Amino acid sequence: MSNVFSIGGVCRLADRGVIRASGVDAASFLQGQLTNDVAGLDNGTACLAGFCSAKGRLQASFVVWRLAADEFVLSCPREILAPTLKRLSMFVLRAKCKLTDASDELTMFGVAGPLAARMLDGAAEWQVRARAATTLIRLPDAADVQRAWLIVAGGSQADVPQTHDSMTSDTWRWLEVESGIVTIEAATVDRFVPQMVNFELVGGVDFKKGCYPGQEVVARSHYRGTTKRRTLLFDCDVLPSAGQDVYASGTASEPAGTVANAAPHPLRAGGSALVEVRLAAAGDELHLAAADGPLLTRRELPYPVPLDAQAAS
Fold first, then answer.
1. Is 98 helix (H, G, I), strand (E, B) or coil?
2. Is the pLDDT of residue 240 over 60?
3. Beta carbons within 10 angstroms of residue 5's beta carbon
4. Among 91, 153, 196, 299, which residue has the least CB neighbours within 10 Å?
5. pTM of the predicted model as reported, rounded to 2 decimal places
6. Which residue from 239, 189, 177 is spatially nearest to 61, judged by alpha carbons?
7. Residue 278 burial (C-beta neighbours within 10 Å; 0-12, 13-18, 19+)
């Protein structure tokens, strides 16, 4: 999508939480729980990773980065942090790994547009730059806009850029939708296998890293080419919400998909949404909430999505 209007500035991400994993077994513990090769992260790289149930359904999605040899940070929405932390902690057992809610220790900001470009100064996607009390992470671009997370330790605001280009949290959320990267929210916990939300297409799954909860389900879907649902990008004249059903025209008996994430459009009424859809219905006219509900207008994602079950592997 060509960016036809200016987006930029900085905003506090009050809806993001942070889990700290520390201890000599932190890397091996996380490696056995998450969908990506977090043990292979160095101090200069972040990655996406999912936490699945035994049935392969995503309980949470994280951005993970390494602070030190035995210390990692996992960021997810605050609304699911407590139950996610509780569930992860159940698997620690005798591992020398301590999991804590560090949301009050690390304050997160979203930075976008020219300000982000200046701060990133050519950093590659998912590159981490840390110094003193701050960490800067280059996120994938969205709507042709450069984006980053700025994480500040200790509650200090001294390292937060002072700018008149403030950005609303709704605008940041819209950029997240435009990026095509699904975030698991409270309304969508345990709804999706990673491939349903394109998680392997955006680098959130490593199929060579070894076992984790649900790994057999995720791997079988990948290698057998049995993915029958994918996530696509839509606009709508009303604002969708995560967890809402969508329907194909004339088919009221069964939903064709589910809204994964949504945000208000910055310039007009309604919003944009990432919607998980049955591949068999991907070419149909889709509607929000009912077969005769508001029309969903499909747009292209910033990466290719295979739209047949065999190609989806």
1. strand
2. yes
3. 7
4. 299
5. 0.93
6. 189
7. middle
The position carrying tokens 């996530």 is 231
Pair 245, 289: CB distance under 8 Å: yes
Q: Where are the domains of the chain?
A: 9-156+163-179, 225-313
pLDDT surpassing 70 at residue 313:
no
Evaluate whether 288 touches 238 at the Cβ level (below 8 Å): yes
Q: Is the dihedral of CA 154, 15, 81, 124 positive or negative?
A: negative
Residue with the two structure tokens 């394109």: 198
Any idea which residue has 């110094």 for tokens? 131
Question: What is the residue-wise DSSP string for 217-278?
Answer: HHHHHHHHT---EEEEEEEESS---TT-EEEETT--SS-SEEEEEEEE-SSSSSEEEEEEEE
Q: Which two tokens stand for residue 130?
A: 């840390």
Tokens 């000599």 locate to: 24
Q: Tell me which architecture the domain covering 225-313 has in CATH.
A: Beta Barrel (2.40)
Q: Return all residues near 119 (Cβ < 8 A) that are at least 6 apart.
A: 111, 136, 148, 150, 161
Q: pLDDT by residue (tens digit) across 87-145?
A: 999 999 999 999 999 999 999 999 999 999 999 999 999 999 998 889 999 999 999 99
Tokens 């159940």 found at: 90
Number of H helices, E strands in the chain: 5, 16
